């Protein structure tokens, strides 16, 4: 069988893939102009996920003589 | 503090499961013009400096998860019009004004989604599809390049065939749906799968038709040559657009 079903109905269900959620939350929903103007439309997920991946494996610009860089791992990846 | 707006509905109640909003904020209902908005207080600074946050995946993920948690909890028993991510107002009075001004638009969305759920169907090229038949080891550079070109052509043809089949899958699902929408196929770097996605569809389906939809997806998967993935039921995010 080649159908995979991921239920999304349970509250707090961590099985909901972030990428599926962002597809809907960035391109769906009722669009109103809020008081604090925020535009998340057009956010390039591929680019930011790539950047999150890079910061997770590369030190963030350590200066010469700096102590050993700490490696930050994003708490959540897009493809989880 | 400013007011973050999650969803709007009619005769809404707050979920009784202890759901909290962004940053653990307490949920409230703002009632106006026969509509209720589900809101919570959020720190103003976090949303004013969105240029810093909008490309911060950790921040985006946390807000998206919290937003979805609230919308899904409220939408479990009620038709809701979910708001786009990060819709914020200076205070509750501004939310009341928006409910009055956009009453017709919200009502139209709620009428459209009442008793219906969104389902997602994604289709992937099945692994191994379109691989050129094993050929003899190339005896020269020219032979290698020729073989490589043929393999690429075969791959392109396989993707083109998969895209045609994806259109057929979409059309078959559309016959069961009240409305459909196609999101752009997700990039491989986001799906974590090697296979190319050729369909990322959303289908608004009557609640009573959920079993028929599941059965149809299984039938399409077993008869066709694409791998299908079904997600849902979702609060109808993909069908709440159009209001202003």
Sequence-ordered SSE layout with sheet pairings:
The complex is a heterodimer of chains A (80) and B (244).
Chain A: E1 3-7, H1 18-27, H2 45-57
Chain B: E1 2-9, E2 28-32, E3 35-42, H1 44-48, H2 50-53, H3 57-75, E4 80-82, E5 88-89, H4 92-101, H5 103-113, E6 116-125, H6 141-174, E7 179-182, H7 188-191, E8 197-206, H8 210-223, E9 226-234
Antiparallel strand pairs in B: 1-3, 1-4, 1-5, 2-3, 6-8, 6-9, 7-8
Largest interface, C-beta closer than 8 angstroms, per-chain residues: A-B, 52 and 76 residues
Cα-atom radius of gyration of chain A = 18 Å
Q: Specify the biggest β-sheet of chain B.
A: 5 strands, antiparallel
- Strand residue percentage of chain B: 15-25%
Rounded to an integer in angstroms, the radius of gyration calculated over CA atoms of chain B is 23 Å
Cα end-to-end separation of chain A: 23 Å
Would you report the number of β strands of chain B?
9
**Number of helical stretches of at least 4 residues of chain A:** 2
The stretches of 5 or more residues of chain A where confidence is low (pLDDT under 50) are: 9-13, 60-80
Task: Describe what you observe in this structure.
The complex is a heterodimer of chains A (80) and B (244). Chain A is mainly alpha-helical and 80 residues long. Chain A is 29% helix and 6% strand. Chain A has 2 helices and 1 strand, in the order βαα. The two termini of chain A are 23 Å apart. Chain B is α+β, with helices and mostly antiparallel strands and 244 residues long. Chain B folds into 2 domains: 2-113, no CATH class; 116-239. Chain B has helices at residues 44-48, 50-53, 57-75, 92-101, 103-113, 141-174, 188-191, 210-223; strands spanning 2-9, 28-32, 35-42, 80-82, 88-89, 116-125, 179-182, 197-206, 226-234. In chain B, the strands form 2 sheets. In chain B, strands 1, 2, 3, 4 and 5 form a 5-stranded antiparallel beta sheet that branches. The radius of gyration of chain B is 23 Å and the shape is elongated. The mean pLDDT of chain B is 90. At the A-B interface, β1, α1 and α2 of A face β1, α1, α3, β5 and α5 of B.
């Amino acid at each position: 069988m080649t159908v995979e079903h991921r239920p999304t109905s349970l509250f707090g269900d961590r099985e909901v893939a972030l990428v599926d959620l962002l597809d809907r939350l960035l391109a769906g929903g009722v669009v109103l102009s809020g008081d604090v103007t925020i535009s998340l439309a057009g956010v390039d997920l591929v680019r930011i996920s790539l950047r999150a991946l890079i910061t997770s494996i590369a030190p963030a610009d350590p200066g010469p003589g700096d102590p050993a860089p700490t490696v930050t791992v994003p708490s959540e990846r897009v493809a989880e | 503090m400013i007011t973050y707006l999650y969803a709007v509905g009619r005769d809404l109640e707050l979920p009784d499961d202890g759901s909290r909003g962004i940053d653990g904020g307490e949920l409230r209902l703002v009632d106006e013009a026969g509509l209720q908005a589900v809101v919570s207080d959020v720190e103003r600074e976090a949303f004013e400096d969105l240029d810093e946050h909008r490309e911060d995946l950790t921040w985006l993920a946390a807000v998206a998860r919290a937003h979805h948690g609230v919308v899904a909890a409220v939408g479990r028993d009620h038709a809701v019009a979910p708001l786009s991510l990060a819709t914020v107002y200076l205070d509750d009075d501004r939310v009341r004004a928006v409910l009055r001004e956009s009453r017709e638009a919200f009502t139209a969305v709620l009428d459209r989604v009442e008793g219906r759920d969104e389902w997602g169907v994604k289709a992937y090229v099945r692994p191994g599809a379109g691989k050129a038949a094993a050929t003899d080891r190339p005896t020269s550079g020219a032979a290698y390049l020729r073989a490589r070109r043929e393999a690429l052509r075969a791959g392109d043809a396989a993707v083109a065939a998969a895209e045609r089949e994806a259109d057929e899958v979409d059309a078959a699902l559309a016959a069961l749906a009240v409305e459909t929408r196609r999101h752009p196929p997700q990039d491989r770097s986001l799906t974590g799968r090697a296979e190319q996605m050729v369909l990322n569809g959303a289908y608004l389906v009557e609640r009573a038709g959920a079993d028929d939809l599941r059965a149809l997806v299984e039938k399409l998967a077993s008869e066709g040559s694409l791998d299908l993935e079904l997600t849902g039921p979702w609060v109808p995010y993909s069908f709440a657009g159009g209001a202003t």
